[in-house]
Amino acid sequence: MTERASIGTPAPTDWRDAAHQRRMAKRYGAERRFRWLGLGAVLMSAGFLVVLLVSMLSAGVSGFVQTQIALPIDFAHSRLTIDPAKLRGPGADLALAAADLGGATDAAAIAAYGPEGDALLSDGAWTRVRDQLKADPSLLHRRATVWVPAADRIDIAAKREGAPADEAIVAKLNAAHALKTSFNSFFLTSSDSTDPTMVGIWGALKGSLLTMFVTLLIAFPVGVLSALYLEEYAPHNRWTDLIEVSINNLAAVPSIIFGLLGLAVFLNTFHLQRSAAIVGGLTLALMTMPVIVIASRNAIKAVPPSIRDAAFGIGASPVQVVFHHVLPLAMPGILTGTIIGMARALGETAPLLMIGMRAFITAPPGGLRDPATVLPVQIFLWSDQVNRGFVEKTSAAILVLLVFLLAMNGVAIYLRNRFETRW
Amino acid sequence: MTAAPHKISARHVNVFYGDKQAISDVSIDFDRDVVTALIGPSGCGKSTFLRTLNRMNDTIPTARVEGEIDLDGEDIYAPEMDVVQLRARVGMVFQKPNPFPKSIFENVAYGPRIHGLASNHTQLSDIVERSLKRAGLWDEVKDRLSDSGTALSGGQQQRLCIARAIAVDPEVILMDEPCSALDPIATAKIEELIHELKGRYAIVIVTHNMQQAARVSQRTAFFHLGALVESGSTSDIFTNPRQERTKDYITGRYG
Predict the structure, then answer these.
(1) Is residue A247 part of a domain?
(2) Strand partners of residue B35
(3) Segment A87-104, tens digit of pLDDT
(4) Which of the ends of chain B has fewer CB neighbours closer than 10 A, N or C?
(5) Taking every annotated instance into account, which residue ranges of this chain make up the domain ABC transmembrane type-1 (chain A) (predicted)?
(6) How confident is the model at residue A5 (pLDDT cuts 50, 70, 90)?
(7) Of A110, A130, A149, the domain-final residue
(8) If you classify domain B8-250 with CATH, what class do you get?
(9) Residues 6 or more apart from A135 whose CB is under 8 A from it?
């Protein structure tokens, strides 16, 4: 055996020579570049978030504020003839509408602000007069000043820039102290309307709540149970592989396809109510389930096998192992997946359009089977409106949606931290 | 059934993982009040064999067991054998301490609770206290029973696992290299504990440590390549092995 010259005792490595110095400088450079890139990425996403929030807030906050006009009404001498006794009880609205309160309100506006006076008021102004009358029937016998919402063009002129004629009216009203802006609580308590000064978000918010309730009720248990079965019980063979591939594909299916599925299954086959929260919830549940299944399976896989061994070793049955040990330990991961799935469902518009939840609905849904709409669809509908008064309402609705989303995530993160186990 | 001469007797046991045979034709007996050590080089199948004794291999989908293993004369692989009760009667302590991420009290109380061994909280507390005392852990943890079991040191965790195993009042305790993750002081405590537990249970311990086998066991079985090479009293195996392979192993020629 001949020994090669290169084998044998090598010269000791000089860790300080130029080649090593260069390598070192290169390594430090790579570290630095990587750190800057990462920081840049974080700053960029934070910047986008700030831009989004600032633009939404600047455009949307005015949606929560309403311009109101002082309307002096002399109820005693108006054309209004109504028995004060009728102002109590459930028939009051009907009685006041029949007594032409709307006409009386318009007449009061014309008396106060000239022949075009009634055009200064919102179409729904008389409902505010009605609410005042119901609250205080004694108004019927005297003269009073009622603050009613201004028409949308006055509203726009008062808040931002309106038509020159409207600006002049606003200036005149301001001089007479007949104009004020106040928090628009009506926006949070009423539903859709054709008049932007009368619209509210409550109907859509309640629709979203009901829809999410149905989604969670179906998707969470079914998703978690499927994941548990697939991980803990199912044999590993070609069928379970097929199911796994299908679930992964299902999670990537565009949402509008789920809308078509919901349309075909829930509406055409089961004949459930069109536009109802229950159909929306079921459709979104179909969409959310794969996300929950995948996240839950990963969380269940991450439970250390030693815990399963310990529980089996002491004589726990498979069901006890799952519900006493595996599920509690996997819960934080399962909840994280559920948050992601539910947040996606909350912001979803396309599948709900397919099942008719884009209808114009002016009353909040009373139950799961009533016609309803949801926040993102409401935003979509308002953004489509020609009337400029809807611009700020759209932004305001987006703010409500974001707050809803944050509240939902907050609850989920709180729950997740409560379940978190420290090792 | 008390007439059965041995606590556990295994006859012609074969274990397969898929097509691969891990244990071939092992026949061995384990007696009451005796500590039996299973020794042998890594991968010789001693842990696999240990896991057949309480059917922990059932949790591995590809594992298949042939032959007969009797506990008090009853075949534990018979269809009418309830595996949940079997594992309560044949407890197990694992290589790595694996307490539940729950309180110390809950760790020990879990077994009695699922098997309905206590009818009220006082009884349960008594079982927990007795088990922790028997595991030699009571004095160290009695003031912090509500602390997490995972917050204990490695040796304490392993004694907690032993307390958890004896809380369900088993007849046999299987220990799968219980000291391999522990330092010498913790190991000494566990060995002391095995000595004390010997009078109550049949103990089967798998160990890599020849000195440990010599110290804690009365009987020793030497496994090699999935087969039982030799078994007998510990002193015989260590001083006067009949088989050449056994002698080579315990004198450190391989393994």
Answers:
(1) yes
(2) B203
(3) 777 777 788 777 788 888
(4) N
(5) 205-412
(6) low
(7) A149
(8) alpha beta
(9) none
